[in-house]
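User: My instructor asked us to take a sequence, write out its structure as tokens, and then describe one feature of it. I'm not sure where to start. Here is the sequence I was given:
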Amino acid sequence: MNKSKYAFLFTSVLLLSACGNDENTPTTENEQAAVDSKTKNDETTTEENEVESEEPEINEDGSDITEEENEQIEFQYQVNTENYAYINPIEGTQANKKIALLTYDDAPDQHALEIAESLVDLDARAIFFVNGMYLEDDEGKETIRKIYDMGFEIGNHSQTHASLPDISEEEQYDEIVKTSDLVEEATGERPRFFRAPFGSNTDYSTELAHEQGMELMNWTYGYDWNAEYQDADALTDIMLNTNLLVSGSNLLMHDRQWTMEATPDIVTGLREKDYEIIDPALIKSVNNESEDFEL
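Assistant: Let's start with the prediction itself. The structure tokens for your sequence are:
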């Protein structure tokens, strides 16, 4: 073999050796720096794309929703203070005008939890007005805590369902404040609404309820206390077809078996009549900024 052939083979080996390096492996310090820079830029671009892909929540007007706005509920309704019965839209809000409010008194006696569970299945909300006497034992506290944790508003319906005009101011104070204390003990929150037994308030109970941060609330109609309507079918029919059902109606019901049985059909029937069953959390109540009430 001549010298030129040896030279050719030697050169070929060197070339093959050089080509055998990993294509991603730099052969100089400058090449390594270039690769490091490219890798860093690629990682930065990926992180920026991930951040940009997280679209912010926006309001209907297109503005971003702030964290404070996310946590704050906008009140859309208020109790009509002329009669404390009807629920009226607040001007300037986007509140639906054809609405109804569900309320259940004398809870939690026997069926309140079942009523609440039924309402959850129906995606409907209500106020459960409690008598404090049902919250004096652990079972009652646990029941009302469960109802509260389901997202329902808990209202004050006095301690023993006493007729307020027939008792002293000191007794009225105990009837109202003790119940609020028990509700707070069970749920961590004091009631925002007060419904007097029989709808009978006094000047004193009105002032006291407001001082305690509660709005008065009566009702527009209710029938389940009447013997004629202590049947699920009869109760459903009258609740849906009475001429008292109008926009803003505040429906009075009680913790009773026939009411529990009628509740799904009442909710369904209201919706078939195009009534929105409003969430009580959207109803404005008294903003209590005054000092504690004193006798």
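For the description part of your assignment, you could build on this observation: The two ends are 124 Å apart (CA to CA). Try explaining in your own words what that tells you about the chain.
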